[in-house]
Amino acid sequence: QVQLVESGGGLVQAGGSLRLSCAASESIFSIGVMGWYRQAPGKQRELVAEIARGGNTNYAASVKGRFTISRDIAKNTVYLQLNSLKPEDTARYYCNTAFYLSGPPLSTWGQGTQVTVSS
Question: What is d(CA 14, CA 27) in angstroms, rounded to the nearest whole number?
Answer without folding.
Answer: 35
